[in-house]
Design goal:
By secondary structure, the chain is of the alpha+beta class. The protein contains 11 helices and 9 strands.
């Protein structure tokens, strides 16, 4: 098949081994549990420890902090394998690719040693609280406030759409620590949530898709956090920190999008080869063949764009505009391809027992989180 004839240029023998490890782990630990996780709206807590034992958590964090000492390419391999089994429940990208890198990039030595080893083992689950009920892509409008009181901050506010909100032990909070306008008054403060007075886990959110992913509201009511938990130890740097890390977040979304598009094509081809209509297989009809040919072209194009971005990112050369371009284009392609592939399945494509249905439901949010695609296009346009 045409998709099998192309090999990503950044893949190595080491990454091939990781790909096989991740595939075996996911087939054993994820696939049999997908329906149950969807019903309970979260993965099992012990699953995080299993992923840690398998070496799949914080794989691109330095070994001195318990990580795998690898690169973003390794994170991309794991994310792609999740897409290949239609896993939309395990928010490893939030934990390992996003939160761990905020701590690694900006944390003090004490902060790194305090949180990263537990995150790598799965003993600690991490989340980041940016979005508020009245604040989406415009992070400069954050209202959650942290007021210094002696050796502590007292935090009040609320957050929504928080992945890993139920299990999180380590929570990075975007909060306003001064009245400086816009992003200059924002800081990142890390909360150890276990038995923390004033920390409230709100309602579990009913989503269109990703039913197995732990997503909920959080609230802070006079929540007292030690001042030493200020990430990096200096107030007012959150906006700069967020802007430095968001390209990696957007790139991992693009990786998932491209891998999902390819997976959808593979599922549709397999189904079209076996499903019969009017005495012939679906693949014998010209319209089906043309649709699948177009979808294969779109999926391959998305993969090559992502490959270019991964190569540049590992080399330290990917800028915000490049990551934003990959994020909006690949997620648009993901939605287009998954929708067209679902049509091949007919009525069965609408049944959640088929992976294509879960992929369809999960795809829509890819154009929203990490910064809406409209914002991504604006960021690209500014760089033209």
């Amino acid at each position: 098949m045409i998709l099998d004839d192309y090999r990503s240029p950044w893949l190595t023998e080491d990454l091939d081994d990781l790909q096989q490890l991740a595939r075996t782990f996911l087939d054993k630990e994820v696939v049999p549990n997908q329906a149950r996780w969807a019903e309970q709206h979260m993965v099992d807590r012990d699953f995080w420890r299993a992923a840690g034992r398998a070496g799949l958590l914080c794989i691109s964090i330095p070994e001195e902090y318990g990580g795998g000492g690898a690169t973003f390419a390794h994170e991309a391999v794991i994310a792609a394998e999740q897409a290949h089994v239609a896993d939309d429940a395990w928010a490893n990208s939030v934990h390992s690719t996003i939160v761990a890198h905020y701590i690694n990039a900006f944390g003090t030595q004490e902060q790194k040693l305090r949180w990263l080893p537990g995150m790598a083992s799965g003993e600690l689950v991490a989340a980041i609280a940016m979005t508020e009920p009245t604040t989406g892509s415009d992070l400069q409008r954050v209202r959650t406030r942290a007021v210094r009181d002696g050796d502590d901050y007292i935090i009040n506010g609320s957050k929504t759409f928080i992945s890993n909100g139920t299990h999180c032990d380590v929570l990075i909070i975007v909060a306003r620590t001064s009245d400086e306008p816009g992003g200059r008054g924002l800081s990142l403060i890390v909360a150890d949530t276990q038995d923390l007075p004033g920390f409230e886990r709100g309602r579990v959110l009913e989503k269109i898709g990703m039913h197995g992913q732990d997503t909920r509201e959080l609230a802070f009511v006079d929540m007292r956090i030690p001042a030493v938990n200020l990430l990096g130890g200096v107030e007012g740097h959150a906006f700069q920190q967020l802007m430095e890390q968001l390209p990696q977040e957007r790139l991992i979304i693009a990786v998932t999008a491209a891998a999902t598009a390819e997976t959808a094509v593979r599922h549709a081809i397999a189904y079209a080869k076996e499903r019969e209509a009017f005495g012939e297989t679906l693949l014998s009809f010209q319209n089906t063949r043309f649709v699948l040919a177009e979808c294969a072209a779109d999926a391959l194009a998305a993969r090559t764009l992502v490959d270019s971005c991964i190569t540049r990112h590992v080399a330290g050369e990917l800028d915000a505009a490049g990551a934003s371009l990959a994020k909006f284009w690949c997620t648009d392609i993901q939605n287009k391809v998954v929708d067209r592939c679902l049509q091949v399945f007919g009525g069965y494509g609408y049944m959640m027992e088929y992976p294509i249905a879960r992929m369809f439901a999960a795809a829509r949010v890819q154009k929203i989180y990490g910064g809406t695609n409209e914002i991504m296009k604006e960021l690209v346009a500014r760089a033209l």
